[in-house]
Amino acid sequence: MSVSEQDKPIVVALAGNPNSGKTTVFNSLTGARQHVGNYPGVTVERKEGHADFDGHELQVVDLPGTYSLTPYSLEELVARNFVIDERPDVVVDVVDASNLERNLYLATQFIELDIPVIIALNMIDMAEAQGLHIDTELLTQLLGVHVIPMVATTGFGKRELLDAIVEVTAKRTKPRVTISFGSELEPHIASVTEKLDDIGLDDQMRISPRWLAIKLLENDAEVVKDLRERIPQAEELLEGVVRARRHIREVLGEDPEIAIGDRRYGFIAGACRRAVATVKRPKVDITDLIDDIVTNRIAGIPIFLLLMWLMFEMVFTLGQPPMGWIEAGFEWLGAVAAAWLPPGELQSLIVDGIIGGVGGVLVFVPNILLLFLAIAFIEDTGYMARTAFVVDRFMRYIGLHGKSFIPMLIGFGCTVPAVMATRTIDDEKNRLTTMLVAPLMSCSARLPVYLLLAGAFFAPEIAGKVVFGIYLLGVLLAMLMALVFRKYLFSGETTPFVMELPPYRLPTLRGLLVHMWERTWLYIKKAGTIILVASIIVWFALTHPAPPPELSAADSPEQAAVHAAAYSYAGRISKTLEPVLRPLGFDWKIGTSLIAGFAAKEIVVATMGTVYSLGETGDEDEGLREALQSDPQFDPLVALSLMVFVLIYVPCIAVVAVMKRETNGWKWPLFLIAYTSGLAWIISFIVYQGGRLLGF
Ligand code: GDP
Ligand code: MG
Fold this sequence. Notes:
By secondary structure, the chain is of the alpha/beta class. It has 34 helices and 9 strands. Helix content is 66%, strand content 7%. The structure holds guanosine-5'-diphosphate (GDP) and magnesium ion (MG).
């Protein structure tokens, strides 16, 4: 036996809810060797005892019984301070198995603290008697900490507990899971964590910065006080926290601490739903009732698909009329500007470049609003969390799991937050796979392209179905590529994990509107910034250099404009690429749009707006849709091939940038660009050439 083992006893803190059997466990571990006193400075009973096991000396401290680690009561504060200040080697959380969900709340807080913890799943005799069967091995994997079944009154499980204490102490095993707080809270937690990291506070306090961030968002008075004492930059940081809290309250319609608590219960509910089998269910609440239906093994997936289909129908149908109005508005604006400005460079820049480009993108604001409204609704009700549960079994076939599904769903809105949402996936292989396939989930910026093309080349009755089909193709390709990546790029098993099931809530109208507006506003802002600049660049590249006069002398104005564009920089670049694009049914005009679309996918539409607007004379101004219809290059098959290409090919610059940040390097973003371009070409080739062969 080594000296160090002799010298320093293993300090074990016993924590748990009142009446979970803590004292019984304590007595069973320490026998007669115990003494009782008070915690320094407070009259809260402190019991301490010793135990010898397998050559190790254990010093066991019985913490006051608590339900949580918030500093609302003296007991809770004492328990928390002991854990944080004294740093026991391991915390044993005694949990009443017959009252599992409620008791596990405390456990989530130790997991958040990221300290070595063991769950003593006590009173399993009572649980069995109630008809509960708990799969402790699965629970161990889901919670990422040891779960030891025990009956403290008989000594059952005592040996296993002691073994676990020695093992966890020797290996300093920390919880292997991170509890995710959902897409509204996580970004706030991440940004506070980052600030704490920058300050270097975790080194000073030797505590998980993520835990500190969560506590700050919960407005934990002790942590706030501590921070003020320790660091000079505290006020600035706390101001940021106050803003974040206000934002959360506005969007969710409830206090952040309530929302955070709900997510903890969601984590527990998700774990218990998988690891606990009930012979007879004691009580049924409304959340359970709905979950029995929507997470049903058989009905779950059809219900989900039906809801998705309804969502796209709604986006398409309700968005159509306001879209027409905005379109008419921009046509009018273009005509007015053309009438007021003298013909020449400036008129062309404003009418063709800016109004054509930016207008072409803003036309789709109603659809984007509706799409974000629908996404906010399924997110805020709690249904989005269920979808992960529903598709989990299916996702396992392709080597992913349900948790990867939420980033993918968010990807329907925008790929940038989708890539960030992969942070909740602990498993690195799964995380990278999810990141690489998430861009195939068609984001809202691509929607304008589909709406334009489907609207122009397919009858109104089937246009919505074509768009839905493109989305579906994206999903299927994502599945396929996930399968390929998991097999060849990142092979190996993944560990089980918890999918949180937060309680259902009726979303607040305000929350929905805020969510919807925040995201739509980003879209509009993009139209006013990146897209405006890109439109001007594209316009310049399309109109310069001017062709020599002899080239266009004899032509009609339309043909002259086309010749001029073909002569321009953009035309020359795209003409070089034409051999590659021809087999897909694309000409140089489409090529130009696709290149420009790398900045942002809406720019594909903006560029078309400019290209086709240049060919017109001011007085016979027509909408982009009609302009496309009258272009002989286009037909439904080309439109389809183009939609498919836009779906798959390189995501926008913003996605590449966020991917570089999230993976710490250029390797994966470059890989993403390469594989999506290749895949886009292949699938579009199949669609176009296949369609031609079939005689379309
Ligand atoms: P504490 O409040 O957490 O310290 O809980 P106690 O240790 O005082 O236990 C509360 C009650 O539960 C006592 O009557 C114990 O005898 C009983 N108890 C403790 N562990 C078990 C167990 O594993 N099974 C059963 N059936 N009863 C237990
Ligand atoms: Mg007790």
